[in-house]
Amino acid sequence: MTTHTTHTTHSATDTTAANPVERIVTAVLILAALAGFAWVGSMVFTAVTG
Q1: How many CA atoms lie within 13 A of 11 on its CB side?
Q2: Dmax over Cα atoms in the chain, in whole Å?
């Protein structure tokens, strides 16, 4: 039982450490998606007005 408790504590520590990383990765992915949509929109705008 002691090993299980130690493992649970270790997992909780890892999860706490991973939260900021997950938030950063999510923010970067959202920004990348927005940049991609903006690029596609600019290509469509160029094709329509060109």
Answers
A1: 6
A2: 71
User: What global pTM score does this model have?
Assistant: 0.57
| CA neighbours closer than 13 Å in the CB half-sphere of residue 44 | 6
For the record, the structure tokens of 31 come out as 């920004």
What are the φ/ψ torsions at residue 33 (nearest 5 degrees)? -65, -45
pLDDT of 31 higher than 90: yes
Sign of CA pseudo-dihedral 41, 42, 48, 49: positive
Give 1-50 as a DSSP string.
Answer: -HHHHHHHHHHHHHHHHHHHHHHHHHHHHHHHHHHHHHHHHHHHHHHHH-
